[in-house]
Amino acid sequence: MSQTIEGRIQAAEEQLRQAMLASDIPALERLLDPELLFTNHMGWSFTREDDLDAHRSGMLKIHGLDLSELCILPRAECAVVSVQARIVGSYNGVPANGTFRFMRTWAPDAASGQWRVIAASSVMVV
């Protein structure tokens, strides 16, 4: 029996969490679409390369990443995820800890079928 879209996305979300914790560039390249659009909690826009560069350089270090309240809304060609994340880490040497809600849109790559994040945004939970 083939895995449901919800099951695939749940597995992809866990792969993304592990890749972020380890700054695993090959895994992040697999999971983030080359044309990714990301807007962070401060309204700044980033590309996939911006994100990968932050991991490569060590500017972004994530020491803890706990996910909760995962909600997956599947559609024929994509899936939208809302998830709360408690992050412990640093950015450019400055502690960057907090609780955030992420909205991610996942879509399968046409050639490989690999589910990738094509768009994401975050807000701080207060």
From TrEMBL:
Q: Which residues cross the membrane?
A: none
Which residues belong to any copy of the DUF4440 domain? 9-117
Domain of life per record: Bacteria
Q: What is this protein called?
A: DUF4440 domain-containing protein
Query: Which source organism?
Result: Achromobacter pestifer
